Amino acid sequence: MRAFILLVFLSACCLAQRPKPCQSPRLLTGTLSVATQKENLMASAKYTYDALGQRIRLREFGSYDNKSFHFDVLLLFQKGVMYKIDKKNKTCCKKPLKTDFHPLAIPEDANLLGQVVLGSSSGPGQGVLVNTWEGELQMKNRTAKYISTVTEFGCVPITTMFHTSKSGWMVTSFFNNVIGLAEPQELIPPRFCKDAQLEEEEDEDPATFFSLF
Which residues form the signal peptide (predicted)? Predict the structure, then answer.
């Protein structure tokens, strides 16, 4: 009987220790970098993320096909609009955002690849425990693969690798993450965007999060 109770206890401990899919903090501020396999894209962006209001602000700079670029965009998923903002010239371009909001999270059907320590486990403060997951997402007319690494405690995003047959691998790395909104006003359109009219040219694909990269 004691052996049976011990076996049940050990089994419960093992199940409790096994990482589970999780959702990242609903409010995040930080920096991310993006690189693609086929499109010669290297970019870095400061981001503000609000899963509660389904809003994202990206202030990005980088190079594409050996040409530098810079843009500042505000994505308002609930309203279905995207603002391209030029603070220097105080101009604003308003375009449709025809895509669903996908929160930073590990889907319930993801498969655990493993758990490791980034850095060192030799002493306190020398490393961070992370979990790596893989899975597939059904997108319009195609299937995308992903490999995501998040912290064990807090589910803070570290790296996501995203693959489609069209664009190949896209690697996004997150760093300097802060839980909460450091500058909440970044998620509100500037005053000079108030009179911006919705623009949608013929034969132009609707803007999506991934098309911005």
Answer: 1-16
Give CA–CA dist 74/78, Å, rounded.
Answer: 12
**Whether 148 contacts 133, CB under 8 Å:** yes
User: What DSSP assignment string belongs to 2-25?
Assistant: HHHHHHHHHHHHHHHHS----B--
50: its two tokens: 């609000």
pLDDT per position as a tens digit, 74-103: 999 999 999 999 988 999 999 998 888 889
Residue 202 sits at φ, ψ, to 5 deg, of -65, 145
Q: pTM, whole model, 2 decimals?
A: 0.82
**pLDDT tens for each residue of 139-175:** 767 788 999 999 999 999 999 999 888 778 999 999 9
